[in-house]
Design a protein that fits this description.
Strand content: 15-25%
Helix content: 25-40%
Distance between the termini: 40 Å
Mean pLDDT: 94
Number of helices: 30
Strand order of the largest sheet: 3-4-8-5-7-6
Length: about 950
């Protein structure tokens, strides 16, 4: 239920296929008898229309939904010279108007009916995808055909989306300490000739240089049926889908002009290279080492994918085991195999630990690569890497959009949709000798480029910036057809909605074991996957005074050693089963969560039970994990969004058990001792204080048997479980500005205490918050992103818990706009209370909630989260069945009343983190009487939030 961000491998996406089918690829037993994993392949139909459009369909009648996706063979490598970021910019423009659809109509057809839409730009392709109730299929086919053929590209839409993309660039690249390294420096310094060297997100200068004619020419060149693939997966009738596809897409004409293709070949490297790069607010140095690599479809790609997994997939991987665990010189490690349609990169890297150098990191990384050149991996390593890759493939087969993605990715990257399935067999065929062979062939020491990333303060005097300047290129003149939105009476009518397909909701069953452990079992799908979620009552609110982060550290240390297994044993045994095992802590509960292939559930749950019951909290493991956490905080403290989030609880709940940073601070973490963790574990981690949820492809009887075997022997203490800490009281609004010089954006938060989960206005609160800030078409996003281009995204959250709750609205924007954004959020809060929501708006936002809830129920992990939360907060499990009706029962007056009582802008605290000198004169008026705190003096353990030094 409470899951930290997993430290996952950077594996080739083409191998992460997703689908459901009665067929299966069986992983053969290797010589060590490693467990096999059966991966259901994607079963699909394929045809090509006369205009060149490729059509793929994958039917699944177990879901009430359908996904419609259109993949275009144009990506960042196809950006015109002097217009890097163009394919990505155009991705945004595709959501504006067409001849028959006003701006944001696609959101009306998706989000407003309980679905969603999105898009992504890769080096080699751009994909657009939607998930909607299956009876809306025809509408989406019509809409996709319309925006392929009659997109409106005008100055207003172009300027608006260009501003949004600039904010995305600031948020992802300029405001993130390592955004420049990954988005800019790695590609720029690794390629000399191929357009993969250009950053996909572009630059402010090149975005500003673009004109509307440039965009129109780009659309006419690449957005055409013979450069696209339509992929539909979900619940549909084959004959009807064929007829609808022919109706809407067959009439589209393919231009006579040939498609331009990138033919540039990156020349071989002639020797090693080391380059120093720099960035502001870089708390820990980093290094990435790249080699030129083959295309994703190359015969060596499977072996390189396995090599990649051996290096960095999980805690038992070579890079983690050596740099993070044994030598303790890195805060995190990473690697990536080839994932491009044309020859690209293989790279390894590390963000160093505090006080460690890039020299140490580079030497350690190169030593691990040399090991694979000099000797093959062990049979156990080979089996574990394959098992993990195949298990990840199974996990991605839960959802229909993942299945369609696998088809599209294989088609556009490998050149053949069938590779979505056959790549799995290719993985299985990889031998230890293959891994060593490709390491020797592609990762030679004399063909590496080392990219060192250092704080700007480390730049030697007089050293020039080696970042290439954007070329200045004149805009094109577009002489083709220019579409405009037709008068309403002349537009094509949106197709009617078909009869709905009823969803089949899960039916959880429960029992309590003799030791008091409550066990809940629910089947989520026929996929061979199980999620086991063990949740105990007790989290950060139980942290001893002055020891913020103690519960979080307790959870983190669970998987770092038991009475019979060391940390390395736990990692290797879990990952050998293809399982993911992770622990985390929230405010009122902590969880241990297992994801495992169904036929490996028994041995995996034995490890899970050992970890939950018998952690030893070794002093050396505590010291190591604490150091990693502190290094992580040093990074997070340079991100404005993280700073504002960390400050929220100390501002809202000061003086209570909830008034500290749940994950700990640089001041509190060093004070925590092993005895503190032992006490917290002994108090909370007990069967009569826990709930075990099992979801996936299993019956109640099988689930109860697994629970009894793994946890039936867990002893219940004679003493009662710990009391719940008292709820926070005495809130007073407080404004805080945290000055982080040099950061690329400001983070704006307006927050206040709110309702608990037991509040009778719970559903009114959910709907009110959805109107304000959930989804693309929510009021905040409409006003801040869509109308003004001031942010990549604006939203709000309501977080009701057992003893307390919170409300917050969060936005990141350029520093200069911080004051304006504060005022805009306040205005929307005021309007929400002053004016009732319209019937159409209310219906749409309710659909967002119900649709998202339904999609969560459809995955084993999502269902486990929902059931675990219901159990912890004492809500009957049949809430699953009544959720939709309770949402629908909320009226406009309920929303208005909740906004008045719980979202009064005068009662919110305002927290802004960013570069104060760049915020301008509007900030003081928007954030009156604010306490201004330099980030270097921030002390979140202090009532004043400053260390006073």
């Amino acid at each position: 239920m409470i899951r930290p961000v997993a430290k996952a491998a950077l594996v080739a996406l083409a191998l992460s296929t997703t689908a459901l089918s009665p067929m299966a690829f069986a992983a053969p037993q290797d010589k060590m008898g490693a467990p096999s994993i059966s991966v259901p392949p994607i079963v699909y139909q394929e045809r090509v229309l006369a205009n060149g459009l490729k059509v793929f369909t994958a039917r699944d009648t177990t879901t009430p939904n359908v996904t419609v996706q259109v993949w275009y063979g144009v990506g960042s490598k196809d950006d015109p010279e002097g217009r890097s970021g163009f394919a990505h910019l155009f991705e945004h423009i595709m959501f504006k108007a067409t001849r028959n659809m006003p701006n944001e109509t696609l959101d009306r057809l998706t989000e407003d009916v309980g679905g969603f839409n999105n898009a992504s730009t890769y080096d080699d392709f751009t994909n657009y995808y939607e998930v909607v109730p299956a009876n809306h299929l025809e509408r989406l086919l019509w809409a996709e055909a319309d925006r392929m053929s009659t997109l409106v590209i005008d100055e207003a839409g172009f300027a608006s989306e260009r501003d949004v993309v600039k904010e995305e660039l600031r948020q992802r690249v300029l405001a993130d300490p390592y955004g420049r390294l990954f988005a800019l420096y790695v590609p720029q310094q690794s390629f000399t000739t191929h357009p993969y060297k250009r950053p996909g997100i572009g630059s402010i200068e090149e975005l500003d240089a673009a004109t509307v004619d440039d965009v129109r020419a780009f659309h006419a060149t690449y957005y055409r049926p013979d450069n696209a693939a339509l992929i539909v997966a979900g619940n549909f009738d084959d004959a009807q889908l064929t007829a609808l596809t022919d109706k809407y897409f067959a009439p589209l004409k393919a231009p006579a002009t040939p498609l331009p293709r990138v033919t540039v070949v990156e020349p071989p490297r002639t020797g090693p290279k080391t380059v120093n790069t720099y960035g502001p607010n870089v708390p820990l140095p980093a290094v990435a080492i790249t080699w030129l690599a083959p295309a994703s479809a190359d015969q060596d790609a499977p072996a390189l994918a396995v090599l990649d997994a051996i290096l960095s997939a999980g805690k038992s991987s070579r890079l983690y085991d050596t740099l993070v665990y044994e030598q303790q010189i890195a805060q995190s490690v990473f690697s990536s195999g080839p994932t491009n349609a044309q020859p690209g990169l293989f790279y390894v890297g590390a963000i160093m630990g505090g006080g460690k150098t890039v020299d140490q990191g580079e030497a350690a990384l190169l030593a691990q690569v040399a090991r694979l050149r000099d000797a093959p991996p062990t049979a156990a390593e080979l089996a574990e890497a394959k098992t993990g890759l195949l298990a990840d493939a199974v996990r991605r087969r839960e959802e229909i959009d993942g299945r369609a993605f696998a088809i599209g990715y294989a088609l556009l990257t490998d050149g053949d949709a069938a590779r979505a399935n056959t790549n799995l067999a290719g993985l299985q065929a990889v031998t230890a000798a293959d891994v060593q062979r490709v390491a020797k062939k592609w990762l030679a020491d004399d063909r590496r480029t080392s990219i060192r990333y250092l704080p700007e303060s480390a730049r030697p005097a007089g050293e020039k910036d080696n970042t290439p300047a954007p070329p200045k290129v004149a805009s094109v003149k577009f002489n083709g057809t220019v579409f405009t939105l037709a008068p309403e009476g002349e537009r094509q009518k949106i197709p009617a909605v078909a009869a709905p397909i009823a969803a089949v909701l899960p039916s959880p069953v429960e029992k309590t074991l003799a030791n008091g452990l409550r066990v809940i079992v629910a089947k989520s799908s026929d996929l061979p996957l199980i999620t086991a979620d063990l949740t105990v009552r007790g989290g950060a609110s139980s942290d001893p005074a002055g020891l913020a982060g103690a519960s979080s550290l307790t959870a983190d240390l669970l998987t770092e050693g038991t009475k019979t297994r060391g940390a390395v044993d736990i990692a290797r045994q879990t990952e050998a089963l293809g399982a993911n095992l992770a622990a985390g802590s929230g405010w009122e509960a902590s969880s241990l969560t297992l994801s495992v292939i169904a036929d490996k559930a028994g041995p995996a749950m034995a490890i899970m039970a050992d970890v939950a019951q018998n952690p030893v909290f070794k002093a050396e493991e505590l010291d190591r994990v604490r150091a990693e956490t502190l290094d992580g905080l040093s990074v997070a403290y340079q991100r404005p969004g993280s700073l504002a989030a960390y400050a929220t609880a100390p501002v809202l709940y000061a003086g209570s058990a909830y008034g500290h940073v749940a994950g700990g601070t640089p001041g509190s973490l060093p004070k925590i001792k092993r005895e503190d963790l032992v006490k917290l574990h002994s108090a909370a981690w007990r069967p009569d204080n826990a709930v075990l949820v099992l979801t996936g492809n299993l019956s109640p009887e099988a689930g109860f048997a697994l629970a009894q075997t793994a946890f039936g022997g867990w002893k219940k203490p004679a003493t009662p479980p710990p009391a719940t800490p008292a709820a926070p009281t005495g809130y007073k609004p407080r404004n805080v500005v945290i000055d982080l010089p040099g950061t690329g954006q400001a983070a704006v938060t307006l927050a206040k205490p709110a309702i608990t989960r037991a509040d009778p206005n719970y559903y009114s609160g959910l709907v009110t918050n959805a109107v304000l800030g959930v989804g693309y078409s929510s009021r905040l996003n409409q006003e801040i992103r869509i109308k003004r281009g001031l942010s990549y995204g604006a939203g709000s959250s309501l977080t009701p818990q057992g003893q307390f709750g919170g409300f917050s609205a969060r936005v990141q924007t350029k520093n200069e706009s911080a004051g304006q954004v504060v005022s805009l959020v306040q205005a929307e809060l005021t309007r929400l209370a002053a004016e009732p929501a319209s019937a159409s708006e209310l219906t749409a936002r309710k659909s967002v909630l119900v649709g998202g809830f339904g999609r969560d129920l459809g995955t084993s992990e999502g269902l486990a989260d929902i059931l675990g939360n219901l159990a912890v907060y004492g809500v009957p499990l049949n809430e699953i069945q009544s959720y939709a009706s309770k949402v629908e029962a909320v009226s406009a007056s309920d929303v208005q009343a909740f906004a008045k009582s719980m979202m009064d802008p005068a009662q919110t605290s305002i927290i802004v983190a960013g570069d104060l000198k760049a915020m301008g004169d509007t900030l003081p008026a928007a954030v009156p009487n604010a306490t201004v705190i330099p980030a270097a003096k921030l002390d979140l353990d202090s009532p004043t939030l400053t260390n006073g030094k």
